[in-house]
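Human:
Care to share another protein and its fold?

Assistant:
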Amino acid sequence: MNNKLVFYIGLIGVVVFASTCIIGGLLIENYSITSQYISETFAIDAEYGMQLRIFGHIPSGLLFALYGFFAYNFFASSKLIKMGFIGLGIFYGIGTIVVAIFPCDSGCNSEFINPSISQVIHNLMALLVYIFVPLSIIATGIGLRKFEQFKSLSSIALALGILSAAFVYILITNPNSEFKGLYQRVIESLILIWILVSAFKIRTSKFAKN
């Protein structure tokens, strides 16, 4: 797979995911982006939840998985870089698909009262995503640090990874905060920025490792 194709996979994945999140919020009357989770836009009883899952979240998850599984080929040879991008593909890519296949209950059942199996799987996968994606980005940043030509990209990865981890901590320790929706969107935005930044770097790459 050549660098231009991997670049477009990452770019389109970001555009599809971001657009789906924005459209989902607009489709629900009185929906609050600061106090409500993204998952509530495609909850099991959401009017357009099925369409958002099928045409938005699942395709974007697939694109993120493909991006993570191929992106490391366009950087210096490093186990940490490879692990970081594959971690991104597994947890942000496949993770996005899983939380879409298993949507949360009505209102995302924040009190976790008699949750459905779908809600349990959804929450568990979301937790894994928010723990391991920031760690994957940080791992990539550490791996890139060893190579002079990637020093600036390393700094960006470390900054985005650490910031996203900090907001994950804030979100997990304040699950009923009136700003939980905002915290989640900050986390998602930081991850999407990393995909965009690394994708644009890949676009200028002249080769791929075997």
